[in-house]
Amino acid sequence: MGNVTKYDMYLFGQGTHYDIYKKLGSHPGKRGKKTGVYFDVWAPNAKNVWVIGTFNDWDETKTPMKRLEPNGIYEAFVPEAKEGDLYKYLIETKDGRMLYKADPYANYAELRPGTASRIRDISDIKWTDSAWMEKRKANPNVYEQPMAIYEVHPGSWKRHPGREDDGFYTYRELAPALTEYVREMGYTHVELMGIAEYPFDGSWGYQVTGYYAPTSRYGTPEDFAYLVNYLHRHKIGVILDWVPAHFPRDAHGLAEFDGSCLYEYADPRKGEHPDWGTKIFDYGKNEVKNFLIGSALFWVEKFHVDGLRVDAVASMLYLDYGKQDGQWVANEYGENKNLDAIEFFRHINTLITGRNPGVMMIAEESTAWPMVTGPAKDGGLNFTYKWNMGWMHDFLDYMKLDPYFRKYNHNKMTFAMSYNYSEKYILVLSHDEVVHLKCSMINKMPGEMEDKFKNLKVGYAFMMGHPGKKLLFMGQDIAQLREWSEERELDWYLLEQPEHRELQEFVKELLTIYRKYPAMYSLDDKYEGFEWVNANDGDRSIYSFIRHGKTGRNNLLFVCNFTPVPRPDYRVGVPKKKQYTLILDSDDPRFGGCGAEKPAVYKSEKSECDGRPFSFAYELPAYGVAVFKF
């Protein structure tokens, strides 16, 4: 009896073999009384396939594989093969070429620049995160929970100095160090870039060759599981970047895998990204959909991941994405929508969130495509969240302006609320905004260095108060001066300087308030959760708004001044005759302010302001932020 059964092949052909990774790839097993390793690879258009590796001295004819019908899966059982051995598939194409391919379903790979797969038995990973997993299942409504994500590129977060290799932290070294930092700052989740195996460091993991393999740069699959387990045990969620949009042309990868366009669309107008030099998956082919769905389930169910951030969704949805006339083909209705990809998203998002309550599917989608987070039954794509790229671009455009010109662009900061309830959003300041000469976050800010820090603080405060879950890329919370590079660690030495420490302390305080008060997150996607006090104070570039909680207790009033002009006579309208307690003052010496004495509590009086019957006066500093609880 082989490893792959007729029933396996039937499900695979239907695109519904959801644990296909247990069958395809390399798996230790028995045949009769012999122990060895099963190798199974899908290569229906190949003429012949051999498995070659350290177990047969890379002898190209020693271990032929047997073809199984009807799918064209090739199988071999190799008694000599053992855990840790390197291997590849040698594929003879119908036109006589010989291709040396890594295993698409391998769970472990040779460290780059090597490109072979490595036999690894991951059937018995030990987990101790049951408390986290049970809680996630019991409280699946993520919309009412806080989510402040720390986006991390593991290879450049911290490094060991003076090591001859890259000095990477291993997954096991990263676990305590990253956990300590994330807990200390108050983030709720980490989002890890570049975990699925990839050949070229400069792609940051967005050109994947191993959809079922944690990258060997930082250790083994078990080591990666240790990292997830460790974060979970310390109540930190884990989100992975996942890239079903395209794959690289590397000779050992998926491109023209069996000599034909197997994983990609055959027509180059559908199957190639001219801008990126990559191949586009054929979402109409069941076995390809199964490969991708199986990969997503693999990370979620095998490695306990809490969410997948799906990269480049727009490039999948639009047939003409990044293409000139003549470089793309319309669908059967003459439109530019990829109907295969739409169906794929509805299937995978419904399946993953349905099988795993509390797990999130997050779309990095940069256009106005409707109902990205809408239910599939109503014609939506059924993602849990969508990155709010529109908010991000408006926010950054505004923050870069000299404060004098901000009054002419006041609506850039209010516009996002006009569409806030059309989707479930995450506000992001991601890695893409601090590379390729776009400047670090602090260096986007106008003015002298002191002004830059004040600008950044008021910007972060506005972001934290605005509806939507939150994401900051590593280094932004310490005001990293240089642009991010994957080739070096963050400039942690900056924390020896007071202004960087003070900004970090300010972000930490924002995150504390964010987690402490449900008004900050529990009604993000509901009209009753947010209310402008004054959205139109363009002349002074001041924004004031209220975040409401479900209970009516501990509502928060935000006042953000985006100019260097102090307002000693500032008066803000409020809904009730109540006491308003100051819980965040950017002028606090902890954050680098001058620390002028201020009352802790303000009583509103019957005095009309901002169209409201009650108000109170507050001394608002230059670039001042004040948050009041009532």
Automatic annotation (TrEMBL):
It comes from Candidatus Eubacterium avistercoris. One of its GO terms (cellular component) is cytosol. Its EC number is 2.4.1.18. It is an enzyme of class 2 (transferase). Keywords: Carbohydrate metabolism, Glycogen biosynthesis, Glycogen metabolism, Glycosyltransferase, Transferase. Catalyzes the formation of the alpha-1,6-glucosidic linkages in glycogen by scission of a 1,4-alpha-linked oligosaccharide from growing alpha-1,4-glucan chains and the subsequent attachment of the oligosaccharide to the alpha-1,6 position. This is 1,4-alpha-glucan branching enzyme GlgB. The active site is at D311 (nucleophile), E364 (proton donor). HAMAP family: GlgB (MF_00685). Monomer. Gene3D superfamilies: Glycosidases, Golgi alpha-mannosidase II, Immunoglobulins. Residues 151-500 form the Glycosyl hydrolase family 13 catalytic domain. It catalyses: Transfers a segment of a (1->4)-alpha-D-glucan chain to a primary hydroxy group in a similar glucan chain. GO terms for molecular function: 1,4-alpha-glucan branching enzyme activity; cation binding; hydrolase activity, hydrolyzing O-glycosyl compounds.
